[in-house]
Design goal:
- The chain has 686 residues and is α/β, with parallel strands linked by helices.
- 41% of the residues are buried.
- It has four domains: 124 residues, no CATH class; 220 residues, Rossmann fold (3-Layer(aba) Sandwich), CATH 3.40.50.1460; 253 residues, no CATH class; 55 residues, no CATH class.
- Strands 6, 7, 8, 9, 10, 11, 14 and 15 form an eight-stranded mixed beta sheet that branches. It has a five-stranded mixed beta sheet with strand order 3-2-1-4-5.
- A hairpin with a 7-residue loop joins strand 9 and strand 10.
Length: 686
Amino acid sequence: MSSFLLRITNRGDGQPGSNLTLFRADGERWHASAGPESIPALDCAGDSADRIREFFLTTTSRDTRFATIAQCLWTTINLPSFEPVWGDAFRDRTTPFHLFVAADGELGGVPWELLTRSYPQCLLLRCPDWQPAASAPVWPVRIMVVVGARRGDRAVKAEEELGAIRRAVRNVNRSIFMKEVLLPTADDLLTEMKLFCPHVLHFIGHGGPSVEDESEPALKFDLAGGASWDWTRPLIRSMLHDYEQDTSCRLRLVYLNACRSLSITGGAATAAAPSLSDQKITYDLSTEFLQRARAVLAMQSDVDGTMAGVFADQVYSGVASGKPLDAAIASARSTVQRQSNIDRRDPYVACLILKTPVEQIIPVPGLDSDRQSSISRTKAFEVVSRFVGRQDLRNEFFSCLQPPCQQIPKHTIYVVQGPNCSESFPHRPGKTWFVNWCMEACMRHGYDVRWISVIGGQGSIGLIELMRAIRDGDPREALSALHRPIEPKASFAEFNFTINTLLSGGVWKPPEPGLALAPDNNDPMDVDRLNDQQFVDRICSAFQSALLVAGAGAPLLLVLDDFVQGTSAFPRGHFQIFFKKVLVGLEEHERRPVRVMLVVTEKFFRDNLDDLPSALYKMIDLKDFPAEAFPEIAMEYLELTSPSVLAKRSLVAEMAMTRKDTIGYWRIAYLKEYAEQVAAVLGLGR
């Protein structure tokens, strides 16, 4: 993609106006292609740069002057010596290109984003500095949305923006995790950041002068009971320093939707028209955050709350689909143009300021066609996108599986526990949905995932049978990526040699180097052999080594499910050996190439895991949904699926039934007292 850098500085001769220099990218270096050229002070049909900024700040309605200003800005910078350098890029409306603007002086604050009105292929970015950084893909992208405005603040419309971000993230929630922090204290905000380690910090609220020092810009946190506070530049500086020191993490992007429809004067909030000093507040805060983040997306003026939600929706959806941030922003501008108006300021308010190449801000790994095809052929994933609830547990699981800031995972064993469905306890905690969602998310992002039904309809099964089931997959499910044999099959050369020798009663001798893979003779194992410590150690060591070799490429995630079916259960003695001799040693390898998820019921856990040290595994406990969560779950389901009125009424009717009346899809609880609340949430009335 062609890239240009327009550097604008004050004239050095003491005259009003600016010097313009145009650079063109050659690989990773900029080369001066034209200029410097001196131009007089900006004059746009009699309006100065200050008047243009004031118009942009104060004009909320449709106005054709936006088009006039856009044309004026283009005329100002398209100097005769520049046209041969970038003319073709501006004329070709079908090919995107980058235009980085580094502007000081009077032209530093004009809304350059208006250039995209006539040239949508122009991906315009502000670039005060340039510091290339690591560009390894990040997954999952963690977004922390921090709200500083109270509920019902009509100037901010935080609820609308939050709703739009939730919808955008929900559609791509295997790539983006979102955490909402509403009206925190300063200490609570720092604590939440350290726990979540966000790549993106998204602020929704007001910006304005600090109550204690009107010359100091701040983000406003409007807490009740006199607990309101200002996030000033010194406090931003100190908090982010503490955050980085304690976590070794750094922010990738700060998204400041800081509305300036309120001005704080003398400690009291009063309605006031935005001013040029308000714009300077946003710029100063952006500069402070840019000291610690790779980029800042800030608003040059107030933006309608509804359009802010639309813009955020498009940005996050685009990033999750693999678009670079600038392309996602261009798509968002286009969407806001269609839903607002091309002659309103809303599409041009967002301003991306960066100090690293845009592809290094939030590089999300793409999904290749083969992996997409594997996912689409897997029956377990057909409806996983409709999974709702359990967001905290999803975040918790992936924080362990894929720790932030390239940290090494502490655990390689994850125990997903939930109650069994039965006549006495008919609630469904959602283990299957949760596990399927996690498997699909892992497969999307490079994990080699296998699901093994431990009992699998085989009745009696033991240690060797489990190892063979993991190795061989399920030939009855040949089209499913979850049931394929572990690759490469040669990984199991030593294991096959070991069991063929020991199970046939042969004399043990270590295998020769470069041992070729031989077929498994499928000899049965006498259960008494489990008392032979040397036999157990050799078989388990060979199997563990095979798994580690198989995980040397893409990390391997084994999901072991169905430890109990009907009256059959995996034997405790066999499980303890497998856990202690095979699984526990996996975390000793620095790369953690193999992870294991054990999906168990509460009873199986008590019988088999309860006496094992809890430090050996990470517990994901899917307890029953609390009653008060049902209206929220119903709303999430509604936003996700847009069900028919009949489907909504069926849901409410089922909730109102007694436990013995139904065994339907929504059998996660039967709470008559919440049926009415859910009905109201779904818009059904009484």
